[in-house]
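Q: Can someone sanity-check these two? First one:
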Amino acid sequence: MFEFVNDKTLAEYEAFNEGHPYGHFMQSKKWANLKDNWKWEAIVVRGEDGKIVGSLAVLIRHLPHMPWTLMYGCRGPVCDPHDRDTLEQLIAGARVLAKKYHAYVLKLDPDVSIEDKQFIAELEHLGFRNATGDGKNFEGIQPNFVFRLDVSEMKNEKVFTAPAPGEAFDISVEDTQGEAAIMHFKTDTRTKVRKAIKRGVKVKLCGKEMMPFFSKMMMETGLRDGFVTRPASYFNKMLDAMGDNARLYMAFYEDKPIAGTLAIYYGDKVWYLYGASANGTKEFDVRKLMPNYLLQWMMIQWALEKGCRIYDFRGVSGDLTPDNPLYGLYRFKKDFNGDLVQFVGEYDLVFNKPVHFAVVHGQSTYRNLRRKRFLKKNAALDTSKPKNLTGDHRGEKKEEPKAEKKSDAKPESK
């Protein structure tokens, strides 16, 4: 029988989610604390011994000016994906919540590979239908294609733990020689990591004091590559909500911030969540400093420090043709020799078909309008002249700037 999580069982729920192979930070109450415009509920199922064997957290939000709500179980459920009894009980609990909150749909996008046909059959048995369609880019709430690096067998002799506040990671080119993690990368990628060190790029763990700089770079990156970005207040709330599970990494050159990333550690994974680079100029070519390659290596070090199983580069396009505007993002992440994983995608359990139909057919129009308004409103702030000087996921075969290609069109997450 299912039960709903309350204050007394919250710690037990978090421990289960964090310790499960399918656990995810977006199923955590910590992440829900960032989403203050959503209601959070969680369902658990216990085994015969009284211990939790499955869970599903959902975020619930009203449609604007409407009595209906969207119920979203981001990256859930957390359980054995082939345990039909547990899955049935979790969805039975979700149906109770749907009635309580007048939900028109329960949307799931599980952290399960599309290769798991048995799990897909279980979802369909429960009444879910695929809502992803043929989209291969970033049409969903979360990316359907990600790059993941298995770090469980990477036994580095030296792992670079967090330095004192305000100090840079103490790392030399010699420290990169022969280590298991960096030797897994492609030769050219290892070279770029070392070039960043040689050219004087320093990486620091920073707090809110650097958020204005990171947010500004996010804006520059969004305008340069054509995606909507979030304000500094959102990133500050993320640091507050996730606590020690979140880190802001900043890359500096001659004490000037030139790139940054936000990473999340939870359970047996570290996720690369957001990344941004400052615009370069003809006189100061940020791309040549390779800061984003060094930032990636330092985030992977966090995964090694925590004994994680997975380092997740997050989303890429599923269209792997070189003429795809998002191909550069795929190539950048691929150069670290991770595995391309396609999830099962979004699955909807519809409770109100007319409302669901109307919302689905309005979402694409809304997203396109939102993106156009953002780019138009902030067009005057786009200082990327010339284009493509950011050193993150564009071509690196030549040192000269190249023509702009749109990239991380949805750096996520919702």
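And here is the second, same format, sequence then tokens:
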Amino acid sequence: MGTDTASASKAAMARSAPVHGGDLRAASARFGHALDGWLDLSTGINPHPYPFSTPAMADWHRLPEAEDGLEAAARRYYGTEDLLPLAGTQMAIKLLPRLRRPGRVLLAAPSYAEHAHAWAEAGHRVHSRPAQRIDDAAVAQADVVVLVHPNNPDGYRYALPRLERWRAQLAQRGGWLVVDEAFMDATPEQSMLRPWMPPALIVLRSFGKFFGLAGARVGFACAEPDLLAALADAAGPWAVAGPSRVVARQALDDRVWQRRTRDWLEERSAVTHQLLARHGVRPAVSTPLFHWIPTSQAAQWQTALARRAVWTRRFEQPCALRIGLTANDADHARLEAALTGASTEVEAT
């Protein structure tokens, strides 16, 4: 491949790369607010991060060490023996497609766009349909099925017996069921995790969402040991930084904080849902970490709120907003004021 062709290919890939929430620098450049002046509700990250103790200087000084307590804490927390720490679930999303020959991959749409991007980039034939329309017939035509549960951004949940039926079907022909449970920590009873992971099932768990520490870049892949070994080999050594391992170990073992946080998230989600509904931005689905609002005026709402330094996530197909949780009463009042002004602006368009 010539230099010009290679450069064009890279440019095309960059253009097709998914866009994510939290892009405040771009929002600041567009709307003129200071970077630290935003109320950022564009992600589904817990606005109350885990209050960890600062890692020791030695954790920064030496290379990370496996079996330093992180794996044990994760096994206790997730209830499975078969897991691998990674630099966020994004690392698994990127690497898993490279561990199989190219085949037919079925995904939900809309969903977390990095999945489709990674499988297509690795040469697989990607097919998508709305989560509600994925059925036995569609699964029967796929080599790999990738689902986000609950789905991001629309919060759709799959019945566990149906997921297990699909896993068994895929296992019979050497396929995979990949279940991304990035938002499952608030409702762990709905997880597909097992004490020992069965054939064909790969569950991804994000540390950053529920614990509010996305910057730590910690995630876990849970699957059969042979598949985890291949994934570990692809990831290479020291996949998770030493200080991040220390912080994650603390958070995963803190049962009191976890129980209190699940209760708080449920309460705050309900309060935010009511506030949005009162101002004509009625969520179709509310989860403990985000709200999904289908509306033909999503662009107008996002712009009107952004003018008031409130940043939300907009989707085009289907046309909708995703809005996260406010952290406290002051942010709640700020959102209410922004919604009051924005609703007048949207009604005038």
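A (reply): Looked at the second one. The radius of gyration is 21 Å. Residues 1-15 have pLDDT under 50 and may be disordered.
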